[in-house]
């Protein structure tokens, strides 16, 4: 037994009326605008596709990297190759614009709903963990996925250009591919609809728990306080070098390193102390960035954006390292957070 998603009536054999399409008309228009407006903001209102301007969308993409689910290698590959990243952002933006415009007009509605589903899935997996006060990006992603499935089931309805093609009896309207890519009556089993709904709900619950918790256990928010991972820390009498990678915190501004200290474990003596004014005057060649989000000196220390990874190489030290002692590196953030890593001694 099958159940039509569409209430399908004909008048004089020339028109059809899609009640499901009419019911989701507000969703189609609003979802279409959300995607087209992303294109409009990046291209017409501001140029956010230029890597040399502030607000470059590629840097925002870099912010997704630390806690992305399932697509971390893909994001890492792009942010390590700036030219590929730039053209990927151009293609992504054009796809968003075409998807949104076609969806609002009701052109190839079902094909565009699949595009919405995939775009939203990418947003969910990449940035679903971001959100300083609420689950902002997760909500955008999961609602986009559910809207994509809903629009696929419903089609464009009466107020769509797909409907115009059907009403004017163009030959393509009778083809099977038109109904699957555009609009028109589909026979869909209830179990298929329920299966799709259950799949979307499962994605919602699993990603909610993975990114934010709360389904069981406490809530987590990785967008509040900065966390910097320190690795490859080495020291000699004349040189200190280490790698920083910021994995958590607010995405709209950086972590500010205002202190670097090297302490001798056996005596507790500080053998290197670099304060904010010294860090802010580090030469550009002392910082080697791996990704498009760049660690750089600022007015009050070293700025470490979310997702940035870089090696800091500080020369010109004049200290004596005892090879039989142990040393620890401490990085201090303006927030009061401190990250510590054991140092390896170079010959």
Automatic annotation (TrEMBL):
The chain crosses the membrane at residues 20-40, 85-107, 114-132, 138-161. InterPro entries: DoxA, DoxD, ThioSO4-Q_OxRdtase_DoxA/D. It comes from Mycobacteroides abscessus subsp. abscessus. The keyword Lipid biosynthesis does not apply. This is Terminal quinol oxidase, subunit I. It comes from the Bacteria. Pfam families: DoxA, DoxD. Keywords: Membrane, Transmembrane, Transmembrane helix. The keyword Transmembrane applies. Residues 211-340 form the Thiosulphate:quinone oxidoreductase small subunit DoxA domain. Residues 25-184 form the TQO small subunit DoxD domain.
